[in-house]
Design goal:
This protein is α/β, with parallel strands linked by helices. The protein folds into two domains: about 80 residues; about 120 residues, Nitrogenase molybdenum iron protein domain (Rossmann fold, 3-Layer(aba) Sandwich), CATH 3.40.50.1980. It has eleven helices and ten strands. It has a four-stranded parallel beta sheet. The chain has a two-stranded parallel sheet with strand order 1-2. A two-stranded parallel sheet has the order 3-4.
């Protein structure tokens, strides 16, 4: 049984549906973005104590921190809790995929997933981009990922330069004036799952931003940037494709 959206996605890739007691109610939107149909017919849970008692799993996959109530109930039904750490780089993804694979008794499947991820990353490394474009993940500027984030790892794997990647700074803020002063080549904006727009993806539609970056905004699917998954490598492949497809800039703000 999974009680975390990111572990939902790992579990659905590692074991047959018949072995899954339940995934969270959040799984469906994320699954549609990266694994369409993979959760069909799988029961859902809402992270409640009643769910644990109802499904009585042998193993519970949770996030970094499990509540004392969850631990007590898991003990009551004889379930082991495996806390899956949040990761911010591809080495971390390798580690948790192998750990979860071992926990659910599917180490060979986990290794296959890691190999597929590494093949995608190797393909990117073997073909350096003709232009190392300066980019930033900006959807309004209140939380811009810098060093030590999965977003930064994806940008670097794609061959881009994250202008927010300052030493010792995981997340920073960029208002519109700071953004224009930094003068990136492209903006990455999230808030998109299954290709559908959201209010968050519209945050960055300031008229000045639209004027200068209307054709240089790259949407990305948040799942691969939020959850440490093998699909994060595919996110880097998609970003490289989008960056390569940008036309040369006809203007500079500086």
């Amino acid at each position: 049984m999974s009680m975390n959206m990111c572990t939902d996605l790992l579990l659905l890739q590692l074991v047959p549906k018949a072995r899954i007691a339940a995934v969270t109610y959040l799984a469906h939107g994320a699954v549609e973005a990266v694994l369409p149909g993979a959760d069909a017919g799988v029961p859902i849970n809402y992270g409640t104590s009643e769910d644990i008692l109802r499904y009585r799993p042998d193993l519970i996959l949770a996030g970094d921190f499990s509540t004392p109530v969850t631990r007590r109930l898991a003990k009551r039904v004889g379930a082991h809790i495996f806390e899956v750490e949040s990761v911010n780089d591809f080495e971390g993804i390798r580690r948790i995929v192998r750990q979860v694979g071992a926990a659910v008794g599917e180490p060979a499947r986990a290794e296959a997933m890691v190999r597929d991820m590494d093949a995608k990353l190797a393909g990117l490394a073997a073909r350096p981009p003709a232009r190392r474009l300066r980019v930033v993940a900006w959807s309004g500027g209140t939380s811009v990922p810098g060093k030590g984030t999965l977003s930064n790892a994806i940008i670097e794997a794609a061959g881009g330069v994250n202008i927010a990647a300052q030493p010792g700074v995981n997340y920073t803020t960029f208002d519109v004036e700071q953004l224009l002063a930094a003068d990136p080549d492209a903006l990455l904006f999230g808030g998109v799952r299954s290709g559908k727009p959201s209010l968050r993806s519209d945050e960055g539609k300031h008229r000045v931003v639209r004027r200068y970056y209307g054709d240089r905004r790259i949407s990305y699917n948040e799942v691969g940037y939020t959850c440490g998954l093998p699909q994060s490598a595919e996110a880097a492949v998609e970003l490289r494709r989008a960056l390569d497809g940008l036309p040369p800039r006809a203007w500079r703000l500086k």
